[in-house]
Design brief:
The complex is a heterodimer of chains A (about 240) and B (about 475).
Chain A lengths: L1 E5 L11 H10 L2 E5 L14 E4 L4 H11 L3 H9 L4 E4 L2 H4 L3 E3 L5 E3 L6 E5 L5 E9 L2 E9 L1 E5 L6 E5 L9 E2 L1 E3 L2 E4 L5 H4 L1 H10 L10 H16 L8
Parallel strand pairs in A: 1-2, 1-3, 3-4, 4-14, 5-7
Antiparallel strand pairs in A: 5-6, 7-10, 8-9, 8-11, 11-12, 13-14
Chain B lengths: L9 H23 L7 H9 L3 H4 L5 E6 L4 H14 L4 E3 L7 H10 L11 E5 L5 H4 L7 E4 L7 H4 L2 H11 L5 E5 L3 H4 L7 E6 L26 E8 L2 E6 L11 E7 L4 E6 L2 E6 L5 H16 L4 H9 L8 E6 L2 E7 L5 H12 L5 E6 L3 H6 L20 E7 L3 H10 L7 E4 L2 H7 L7 E6 L3 H22 L1
Parallel strand pairs in B: 1-3, 1-4, 2-3, 4-5, 5-6, 6-9, 13-17, 14-15, 14-17, 15-16
Antiparallel strand pairs in B: 7-8, 9-10, 10-11, 12-13
Helix pairs in contact in B: 1-2, 2-5, 4-10, 15-16
Classes of the chains: A alpha/beta (about 240), B alpha/beta (about 475).
Chain lengths: ~240, ~475
């Protein structure tokens, strides 16, 4: 079983790569790294999971340029039910454009019907509590931009914290098994039920997570904390 | 020579002098009322006169020190060397490094008629405050120690901070840069500059072993960077096989670093000097080299700098060692929410001689009062260094203890070596304190954590003393 990490030389901020390290450790999958100057493995093969994590602003443009020739392949993969996970501001790369501080529109890949507005002097930090397929999702947001656009139900239903932007409840984007979220960092480590759900989609039967008891213990504590209405959400 | 302050005129002058005198008056009042407001006079002055820094008298020569890690140590070394050489030095070493802290220091150094009493200013400036400081103050030199990943919430990523500095530093300021850090090298490319760096060390590698490496691709063409040698993270000498881009040549090269004899040679176009090392950590070797480069830029001879270095010490406020009974108890600051700083500490501690018992309490307890600490940094941090047979026990504690436990398990640390407990003082009871062990208490920077760490230290020392009887 293969997990493909797209452009880890630039998409590696905030511990995001631990998302796939944890999944790989839990199911014995091999992680294959695809660099900016290589053709992604998913174009010709069917990795169990394709992953892209948070990057810098320059990284967003480098990734856009590197990925553009393979966008149709991703569409096909998504239509066929392939599992893809995108976290942090990598989500913005697949929107229509990013508007920068000067009002300039930087064209992006246009897979999602969204656009992002970036404010480099106004970093946004928040806790996040949401729901997904009957399970609670906990995590952190730390970003320069938010996105707008009709994403239907999104990926997660927000219980506390910002959705795709602070004014909406739907968080992230889902098209079949392509999932994108602004939640950064070790989402799968912090959310064992979600990690198991992903492993299930990847074809792992009766998945068992690495150090599952310890992960669940930390998760249950965090769910309780984040559900407390007295606990502040933004930093 | 630093650009002079602008002379305030008309209503601006009235406003400026009102701010100056009010802020001056606040200093004795703070003392009388026993308020420790290191920033308050500057805050007040900036509130009353937002252009205060533009008008404030300043030393003839100004050096600013910025960067992710080491800026306080470097700032202190430069101050100590210059004072040793007989300069009257104005600095913010006892105050804060944001714009109000700089204003407070300038206030302290001037008369009521706005005349500066010092010839040289050495000011530590927080990277994110540069936008508020440099429009008003043009340094002769700006030192950038390094640019690394720092707080996720505040600093985002180092490329962002480099952009911040490029947009802020005046074009006439000469930069003194770490040539082993290509992110620092990218700052303000049009400015005059000098580079310092350390030639290859025995411990260098060519492939990064750290989780964080923020420069894996060529800044010019995005090709893969190849490292001739790599010290840690992205610190080393690199070149791009695709376009020929490479690390700059050193103007000040630290070489022949010898930890056995605690010596280093610094070579430059004007000759070479032989220096006593102030510390055996490579981070501090960089700090010392940086300060030497600054002295050389100011025109001092190596011989004079060697003499100035003789009596110096790297401030040990972040490291304290006590012997209690049969164990050594070490308090080691390990900057919370900062994956890179903690990775450096883990690397350092794990390679110290002897058996080590660790108590990890770097939770940010101030964060915990209002929300919940963002723990993403744990997964950028090299906990793998602690998976080492010489680390015989790790006690994790504080509100994020369970997160630390899971991270350590994922780093490969055997279950039997880890103890996990929420209460910090209870954690102090769980240390084994085996005879001959070195006990490291790793604590964070927030005030609440520091207070509790101090109690934990006392408890550990008391227990160790008791055990040895």
């Amino acid at each position: 079983m293969i997990i493909e990490a797209l452009y880890p030389e630039v998409c590696n901020l905030y511990g995001d790569l631990s998302n796939i390290r944890y999944l790989a450790r839990s199911c014995g999958a091999e992680i294959v790294n695809t660099s900016l100057k290589e053709t992604p493995r998913f174009v010709t093969e069917d990795p169990a999971l394709v992953y892209m994590g948070t990057t810098t602003e320059r990284g967003q443009e480098l990734v856009r340029d590197a990925f553009a020739p393979h966008l149709e392949a991703l569409r096909r993969r998504t239509e066929n039910g392939g599992v893809t996970l995108i976290t942090g501001n990598a989500l913005e790369i697949f929107g229509e454009y990013i508007q920068d501080d000067g009002g300039n529109r930087i064209p992006m890949l246009g897979l999602f019907p969204t656009h992002a507005v970036r404010r480099m002097m106004n970093r946004y930090n928040s806790l996040y509590l949401g729901e997904f397929e009957g399970m609670k999702i906990v995590g952190f947001k730390s970003q320069f931009g938010h996105s707008w656009g009709d994403v239907g139900q999104g990926l997660f239903n927000t219980l506390r914290g910002p959705g795709l932007n602070p004014d909406v409840k739907p968080e992230g984007i889902r098209i079949n098994n392509l999932m994108a979220t602004y939640v950064i960092g070790p989402l799968t480590v912090l959310n064992p039920p979600f990690a198991k759900y992903l492993l299930g989609l990847m074809g792992v039967e009766e998945p068992v997570l690495a150090f599952e008891d310890a992960a669940l213990d930390a998760y249950n504590t965090r769910v309780t904390e984040f559900s407390d209405p007295k606990r502040g959400l933004t930093y | 020579m630093a650009k002079n302050a602008i002379r305030p005129r008309g209503a601006g002058a009235v406003r400026f002098y009102a701010a100056l005198w009010a802020a001056k008056l606040s200093r004795p009042l703070l003392k009388i009322t026993r308020h420790n407001g290191t920033n308050f006079p500057g805050e007040l002055a900036l509130k009353l006169c937002p252009d205060f820094l533009r008008y404030m008298a300043r030393p003839e020569k100004i050096i600013t020190v910025t960067g992710t890690d080491g800026k306080t140590s470097v700032n202190n070394l430069i101050c100590d060397m210059l004072e040793g050489a007989g300069y009257s030095v104005l600095s913010n070493r006892l105050g804060s490094n944001i714009n109000s802290g700089v204003a407070t220091s300038l206030l302290a150094g001037c008369t009521v008629f706005n005349r500066c009493r010092y010839t040289v200013g050495v000011l530590e400036v927080d990277e994110r405050s540069s936008k508020r400081v440099y429009p008003s103050i043009t340094p002769d030199y700006t030192v950038i120690t390094n640019l690394f990943r720092d707080s996720i919430m505040r600093n985002g990523h180092p490329e962002y901070i480099a952009g911040f500095l490029t947009d802020s530093i005046p074009p006439e300021t000469k930069l003194i840069l770490n040539g082993d850090d290509l992110i620092s090298v990218s700052v303000a490319p049009g400015n005059p500059r000098a580079y310092f760096g350390l030639t290859r060390l025995d411990t260098d590698v060519t492939e990064c072993v750290n989780r964080i490496n923020d420069l894996r691709i060529c800044p010019r063409c995005a090709g893969k960077l190849e490292y001739e040698y790599l010290r840690y993270h992205h610190i080393g000498r690199a070149h791009c096989g695709d376009c020929g881009f490479e690390s700059p040549a050193y103007d000040y090269a630290g070489t022949d670093v010898d930890y056995d004899h605690m010596t280093m040679t610094v070579r430059d176009a004007g000759g070479e000097g032989h220096y006593r090392l102030l510390s055996d950590s490579v981070f501090n070797v960089y700090n010392q080299l940086t300060a030497i480069a600054v002295m050389r830029e100011l025109g001092m001879e190596h011989g004079q700098i060697e003499r100035l270095t003789q009596g110096l010490k790297i401030a040990e406020s972040r490291y304290r060692s006590d012997i209690a009974g049969d164990v050594e108890v070490v308090m080691q600051l390990s900057k919370d929410r900062n994956a890179l700083a903690c990775s450096r500490v883990f690397d350092y501690v794990s390679t110290r001689p002897g058996k080590k018992e660790l108590l990890l309490m770097m939770n940010n307890l101030n964060d915990e009062k209002n929300w919940s600490e963002n723990v993403c940094w744990l997964y950028d941090c090299d906990f793998e260094f602690l998976n080492n047979d010489s680390v015989t026990q790790i006690v994790v504690t504080g509100p994020r203890a369970k997160d630390y436990y899971l991270r350590l398990r994922l780093a490969g640390v055997p279950e039997e070596r880890i103890a996990c407990v929420r209460d910090e003082l209870e954690a102090a009871e769980l240390l084994k304190l085996e005879s001959g062990s070195h006990v490291y208490i790793l604590y964070g920077t927030d005030s609440t954590c520091m207070k509790i760490a101090s109690q934990v230290r006392e408890r550990v020392i008391a227990r160790a003393t008791e055990v040895s009887k």
